[in-house]
Design goal:
With 290 residues, this protein is of the alpha/beta class. It has a single domain, classed as Rossmann fold (3-Layer(aba) Sandwich). It is built from nine helices and eight strands. It has an eight-stranded mixed β-sheet with strand order 1-2-4-3-5-6-7-8, sandwiched between helices. Strand 3, helix 3 and strand 4 form a beta-alpha-beta unit. Helix 2 packs across helix 3. The longest helix has 20 residues. The N and C termini lie far apart (87 Å).
Length: 290
């Protein structure tokens, strides 16, 4: 028999009351991206925090392009090392010079390279600005895709010339690019004979007739579920082999386009692809920039 009288409200203890009233919360899955302090680049979601905690010296510089008015703004990050360092030019995606691209540059500097990431739409945005001046991502995409190829080449040449004259530079240069920047990295290798290496993340190749001009070894890294780009790999490999060029290509199973930036996507496949591709990138750069 209970001691409670009929018609009276029973008052529950506060902890019990909270358990009754609060809805059940499903446990959150662990983040499928490189953890803080990892040897992998940060994902887009982690990029700003990675930049904020970086101990490396970084700064924006303004680089003059020969024969034209205006300058290209670039983000440069220096490694902590005693000897002179090789240069890696980081070519941004179709989304411009984002925090994520700057975080990739920082990660390359952590690995011993001087990394310089130009904003290739410098001066093209509202008020003569660059990526930061655009009102939204769609506007950035429009500016990037409207760049004339000849102007892209001139800007990259200017960045390269600036970088090799740095007192801390060894004079050896490579490019690495992503998406639009991956295609640009590959194309730049057809026009810059002094380039020592080119890394292409999920970018399409240049026309076959231009490949004969390539001097630098090329590394291509692709997502298996990115057929628009990955479908070009076999033909590119065949042509580069026929021409006697170095073209190493790896296709990561289950990964999508932009896997290095979107590491949390595709149920772990993008992170696994990153874990495979990034060490391969570093080994390639070290081999050819020695």
């Amino acid at each position: 028999m209970t001691n409670a009288r009929p018609g009276r409200l029973r008052v529950l203890p506060l902890p019990t009351l909270l358990l009754v009233l609060l809805p059940a919360v499903a446990p959150q899955p662990p983040s499928q991206a490189a953890p803080a302090g990892s040897s992998l680049p940060a994902s887009e979601a982690q990029a700003k925090a990675a930049l904020d905690r970086s101990p490396r010296h970084s700064e924006y510089v303004e680089v003059q392009v020969a024969g034209v008015e205006g300058r290209v703004r670039a983000w440069i990050v220096y490694p902590e090392r005693k000897d002179k360092a090789p240069i890696v030019i980081v070519i941004h995606e179709i989304f411009g010079l984002s925090d994520w691209i700057r975080a990739v540059a920082d990660q390359l500097a952590k690995e011993g390279f001087i990394a310089i990431a130009p904003d290739l739409i410098s001066g093209k945005g509202p008020g003569g600005g660059g990526t930061d001046s655009a009102p939204d991502r769609d506007a950035v995409v429009k500016l990037v895709t409207s760049l004339p190829p000849s102007e892209v080449q001139a800007r990259l040449d200017a960045i390269r010339e600036y970088a090799i004259k740095l007192p801390a530079s060894s004079g050896n240069t490579a490019t690495i690019g992503f998406c639009w920047g991956g295609s640009t990295s590959f194309t730049y290798a057809t026009t810059q004979p002094a380039l020592k290496a080119a890394v292409v993340y999920y970018g399409t190749p240049p026309p076959a007739e231009a490949m004969a001009n390539i001097k630098a070894p090329v590394l291509g890294l692709y997502g298996g579920d990115d057929a628009r780009v990955t479908s070009t790999v076999d033909a590119t490999r065949t042509e580069m082999t026929r021409l006697g060029k170095v073209y190493d290509a790896e296709v990561q199973p289950g990964a999508g386009h932009g896997f290095l930036r979107a590491q949390e996507d595709r149920n772990g496949a993008n992170l696994k692809a990153t874990e495979q591709a990034w060490p391969r990138t570093l080994a390639f750069l070290r081999r050819y920039l020695r």
